[in-house]
Amino acid sequence: MQKKLDALGISAFCESMGMMLQAGIQTEEAVGLLRQENSKPGPLETGLGQVQKELEEGSNLSAALEKTGLFPEYAVRMVAAGESSGRLEDVLFRLAKYYAGQKTLSEKLRSAVTYPAAMLVLIIVVLVLMLTMVLPAFTQVYDRLTGSLAYSAYRYIQWAYGFCWAALGVMVLLAAALLIGLALWNSKKRSVVEGILLKLPASGNLLREMGMYRFTAALATFLASGEVQDIAVMESMKMVACKPVEQKLEKCLKHLEEGHSVAQAAYDEQLFEPVYGRMLLAGERSGSLEPVLWRLTELLEEQCGARTDRLVGIVDPLLSGVLLVTVGVSLLSVMLPLLGIMSSIG
Predict the structure, then answer these.
(1) DSSP designation for 222
(2) pLDDT digit string (tens) for 264-292?
(3) Which domains does the chain have, with CATH numbers?
């Protein structure tokens, strides 16, 4: 099974195709031009060759993309909707923007996990060095100076050892929890990790905003393809991956079944913040629902990025503080006996 293209590759493909189709170039010819531009061997070049072959045999673009196995189901479904509604160019540009935003957000989330993980590894390494090299070296120095450790010196050294072992245990547990969480997140048990994170204020708010961002972007793209509101909301729900947001959307669907518009349903169920809900209502009443949805998507993307940065900003000084306090207290504990010895000599 071929590995699917990443978000950046899909965004580049959709934007290039959209520009060529907008310039009046036929689909088959556009794919051929993209193959010439992307002459380096790789998944995209191979996929473009398969797409071109399918197009030459009479398939449409969505069917050709699906047969390559390189494009996600959402992108294929959106291209098919664009073809059936005659708005393929608009859909391709929307998909390019959507996947570019997904790439930016995923990079921020990766940095939010990578940096704390690196700090945990650094703290563990420092603590291991303290326990295996620094503290034993001080113990040997005191033993040579006094013949044997005095009770006071021994007590201070024991405090240092105890403090380092306790800190090391906590850091190892945190590192293990992070590794297990990442493994579960990338498996079928992602809901377990999500449930835990949703209970924490900082991570819970971030997950909800990410779910709303994915839903709003998908909804705007579906509406741009000419899809009716009910089906657009149902299909966009598949992109959310956040239980609290999905529950609110299910309530919105009930409003839609009763004849309400998507903007009114979202406002009644407080799907968005009040100011955003009023923006959506105003956009729908003025016939500018799609532009308003894309503006909301941009705002939600900015909020997710800012919240991720704040989360990293909290974790970074916290872990740095743990490292400084642990090393500082340990060194102070082993230095106090030395100061006592020096004062007695003086």
Answers:
(1) H
(2) 888 888 888 888 888 888 988 888 888 88
(3) 7-100 (1.20.81.30), 106-346 (1.20.81.30)
